[in-house]
Amino acid sequence: MLAKRLIPCLDVADGRVKKGVNFVNLTDVGDPVKIAAAYQQQGADELVFLDISATNEQRKTMTDIVEQVSAQVFMPLTIGGGISSVTDMQRLLKAGADKIAINSAAVADPTLIQAGAKKFGNQCIVVAIDTAFDEQAGQYRVYTHGGQQATSFEAIAWAQKAVSLGAGELLVTSMDRDGTKAGFDLRLYQQLGAAVNVPIIASGGAGNLADFTDVFQQSPVDGALAASVFHYGELTIGQVKQSLKAKGVVVR
Residue 128 carries which DSSP code? Predict the structure, then answer.
């Protein structure tokens, strides 16, 4: 069995790490380079760096910060935000990224997934899906532009299409749970796990040790991503790994 991964996330805007609830009311957490170095020390398995304002500001991901972060960490680094071409991907891979996460641009032009996978390999292309449950329709709807624009895409069907086009991994954020510390949306990840056969990273809702155990034991996800509980020192990577090992979950 593959070891489960614990992945802190740095949401970056204006060169600073930010955190909000349900994708709004962002507060400043600190310097991305210092925070990344601290997670390296704690033993994080990977790091996700999302330039959350790049798409809405119609600019490219901040390469200089990516270079500084990659110089500090030796774990795999996934970079997303403002990536809309294979050239953008190449620039970030040269700056130190190991994987590229695409969201809004992939929804606008799904062939970008195919082009990236063909040039860099499926393992390099992560399709990020921001989704919220639509009670009226009884399904998960896909959102783009940092959660600001609803689309007509249904999340499970979009996940299947993304994988068919070459996505090697899915980073799926429950907007309903984001920053709430109410636990991961297990129903979402159970549905995704039944629909696709690539690694899934669960994001949104981590609040305590039991939440990590639940998402790994009750859904087929491969990684759990969290921000608030790690950024504010409520939990450390080591504490979560220790707790998971005690519950029989295989971790690195």
Answer: E
